[in-house]
Model the fold of this input.
Amino acid sequence: MPPEFIHKPVMVAEVLDALKPKSNGRYADGTVGGAGHAAAILAASSPNGRLSGCDRDGAAVEAAKLRLAEFAGRFEIRRGNFADLAEWVPAGSCDGVLLDLGVSSPQLDAAERGFSFQQDGPLDMRMDTRQPLTAAELVNTAAAEELAKIFWEFGGERDARRFARAIAHDREQRRFETTRQLAELIERLSPRRGRKTHPATKVFQALRLAVNDEIGSLNRGLAGALKILRSGGRLVVITFHSLEDRVVKEFGRARGRDYTFTGGVDVPELRQPCAPELTWAHRKAVTPGAAELADNPRSRSAQLRFFEKT
Ligand SMILES: C[S@@+](CC[C@H](N)C(=O)[O-])C[C@H]1O[C@@H](n2cnc3c(N)ncnc32)[C@H](O)[C@@H]1O
Done:
């Protein structure tokens, strides 16, 4: 693997424990990244297990192919959104699907990708650099109300409106082009005063989720994952913040029910019986152990959930 692409995969043992890879098994990894999990799945499913993987990030795809060279002939990696997995992985074919959400360390650490307020770089944040919408485009052109909505809904930022108004005001004088420009504005409006987290954390998270349509992709990706699983196959999802985890839990609840309902309100009169599509393998999320937390601080917010297709 090129030295610049180093990502420590989280909870590898827990992922393997949930997927229980077997020889002849077929697996899909929707967030292949540096292929740490993919390599572990291929090794554990030797000699015949197969893996279909994708990532939106071209650099990740290249790194993954190199990392997996020893498993040549047993994997296919494509550049693309996991929301589209069901378009190329056959329905009912997989024994296990993994989604390890969020960004990789190389994306966070490369200033030029514009994900981090800790370093100065272009305000970009695209996982797939072929996509036209960048964070700068959003910050410079979206209406203040839309920005406030993004900061609130995707970041839970209480000062969403104030920050959005200030951005709309400042961009009249000068376009926002860099991560530092935006981080400094937020710091000016909301001084740090000894807080542990940087005041721009939530704004940056919200912009990243909006630029990459991460919640929309997750909803489509979960539905697609269920399609490509065979009956008894397992879906493993690792999330890094509560908004994503809420989407996963809601998906598990909705697809695990033995009834559907219309109109968005679950009242007994509107229920229609149906067969549940999945069962929860575990009610409680699995989290990293003490040794992993000490070794990899970025794993601290990871939560793993897994379901079995009925
Ligand atoms: C936490 S990293 C995954 C690391 C990987 N499991 C490993 O072992 O190295 C998340 C990766 O998912 C990718 N990603 C995020 N959302 C995606 C989506 N909707 N479709 C495809 N890839 C996505 C990111 O580009 C990033 O490379």
